[in-house]
Structure formats: C-alpha cells, structure tokens
Amino acid sequence: MALHDPNEAVLAHVGGQHRLFIDNEWHDAASGKTFEVRNPATGTVVAHVAEGDARDIDRAVQAARRAFDERRWQGLTPEKRADVMWKLAELFERDARTIAEIEVVDNGMPIAFAEWMVGSVVQGLKYYAGMVTKLQGRNVSPALASCRRLQRYWPLLANSADFCSDLLTAGGPCCSRYATMCSPSSAPARKRRRPVLAFCQ
C-alpha cells in the first residue's frame, strides 16, 4: 500500500516550531524540554514539541479559570459567540485538507477517515453556533403563586472522552462547551499534539 504524500503546507507545519498554547499565547515548556514526534508510518522524526509538565498544566488551568472569572467569553452576546464559532468552522472548511493531512502524518490514520473527522468538527461547530442563540432555561414551579422562577444552567467544568484523535476530542466535544460559555482547556496525547496545535493556530 502506498503511503500518503503530504503537501507543502503540511510539511511546513510539521517542521515548524511547536510550543504550548496557553492564555492565547505561545510558550516554551516551563522545563525548556522538548520531545521527538515520529511519523507512525515511517518511524522518522518529523517534529520536536514542547514537553509540558505539572507547572504548565497549572498555568493552563489558571488561565482557563481567569478567562471564566473575567467573563471574556460568556460576557459576549450570544450573537457574537455564534459569529466566532461560525468563523472557526469556516476556517476549518478552508483548511480541511491540510488539517486532515496533518492528522495523517501525526496519527497514521487513513486520509479518508481524517477528512471525515475534520468534517465532523466543522459540522459540530456549525450546529452549536446555531444553538448559542437558542439556549434557554425552564420554568420552575414556585412556592408562591404570585412568583415565577426561571432555572438556568451554568456549566463550570466538563471532561473529555478518549478517542483516536485529539483533534476530534478538542474540536468536537468542546463545541458544546463553547456554546454553553465554558472555558475549556485541552491536554492532547503526549505524542499526538500537532493537529490540536493547528486547531489553536
């Protein structure tokens, strides 16, 4: 079986500098360490990525907490949040082939499955972008007939499901968290980070 030959944009991304994306900025690991990432199809070293540790995790969680407390995301109107999510979906569509090929080099999955996966992220972003303006609470029967109460849910934390692709985990389940005003943080598999870094870019 012939190996998939990545295009120039993929090679440029794979061979670029891979740092940690925390608080909307790129950072070296606190330790200064990096590690090798190999193409599973060929075994060749294709990248060096910052090796985060507990200090970097703490910094990322604290940044997510600050973003939530400062209402950087949930302080936007529903219409603005929907616009941002729709724009992200359009960027994914524009670069769908390149992102899929990055996943192939990083993960070793077939290109057809990688393209389906990227398409699923696009669909999820568009679906939840449409839901942002339709989130609502529910009426709760009050103790007093003259009162009316509305119950709303404000999620604070959410867990990620393991999957064969960290891109699908970060871009798929996180769509609902963006829609419900969470401030997610993502910790992809140690040697499968480049698609998620492309997501951040």
From TrEMBL:
The keyword Cell membrane does not apply. Keywords: Oxidoreductase. One of its GO terms (molecular function) is oxidoreductase activity. The keyword Ligase does not apply. Residues 26-142 form the Aldehyde dehydrogenase domain. It comes from the Bacteria. PANTHER family: ALDEHYDE DEHYDROGENASE-RELATED. This is Aldehyde dehydrogenase domain-containing protein.
